[in-house]
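Run log, item B.
One chain of 403 residues. Sequence copied directly from the ordering sheet:
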Amino acid sequence: MNKITICGIGPGNKQLVLPAVLEAVADCEVLLGGKRHLEEFALPGQRTVRLNGHETELREAIQTTDAQRITLLVSGDTGFHSLLRTFKRLFPQMDVRVIPGISTYQYFFAQLQLSYEDAYIGSLHGTSVRFTDKVQHHRFSFLLTDRHQNWKYIVQQLVAEGLGQCRVYVGNRLSYADECIVSATAAELAQQEHDFDLCAVIVENSEFKAHRELSYGLPDETFVRGKVPMTKEEVRAVVLSKLSLRSHDHLVDVGAGTGSVALEAARLLSEGRVTALESNEEAVKLIYQNALQLGINNLEIHQGTAASLLPDCRDVTRVFIGGSGGELADIVQWVAEKTASETVVVITAVTLNTLEESRRLLLSDKFGAPEVVQVAVTRVEKVGNSDMLKAQSPVWIIRAVRK
């Protein structure tokens, strides 16, 4: 049976590699890695296979080799955005040994003589991360980059989000002889030009907010409304409770109106995001206005009907339907067919017709038994010298979980 050793080779300098890595290289029958890895570590005459980052190449290299002892070299540390996770997924039964390496963030923080126990450590390499939100809530944020989301993109986004005063450290070719570290505020760096390839960035925000506000049920007066309907604060609080939001969820708010539910949910989803769908042009403008006012940056807003927009929504785990535009059956069918097990859907209804249609649609073998509650809110208002009770229209809240 093939046995593979996966080795982290650190930021690049061979002097920073553990001796066990060099032993694994010397002992293997075939050495796998990228061009730079092989040029640095392959021994004279050693059998090698060059990988360019494609899964098919890795799969073919492992499946076609007759070697019993294989060593795979990966950049940085095996436990930080490494090829290790992909390898374990492709070959779950293979005998694997892992030797860690120094992560780029460990090296970079050390070069700056900074500690990172409270830092955000992440990567923009081929992924989408709301890094400006991380910067707002951490003194230090470390980011790996790619060619699109590079150092210049990062500082430009920081400036656009009002974080231009943050100090940014850009590390290029870290650990090599021609290592270069540039430091300035984001606003200053946005005006500079540097010929950096893939590099690492540390953002220092001395004005970070250590504690994020996690409560919900904002006063209705918080939101700009215009003439667009809005889910009132007491109903909104119950809706958010019924959605059972987790930090990493992706919520789709169908018929978002002023965006009150979408915006409150976005404030709670520290690692997640919200997609608001709304067909009314005035409402869409209000959502943008309210998002800007609340400083929300993990919300996407799309104008159009649910039927036209839902097919483009991916990895949805929570669905709120505050307005269906006559497409309720199509929306529920999409949830049933296109979302995963345990996706939560919550519908609000102010008419018996919508209530009954919602129950009928959710009473299917795709969902667990629907839960139905009514919220009836009465407020006390001053009328002259008297306190009067003023009842609001009752709202039905229907909740179901995708099987």
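Observations after the first pass:
- The first strand starts at residue 3 and ends at 8.
- The mean pLDDT is 91.
Flagged for discussion on Thursday.
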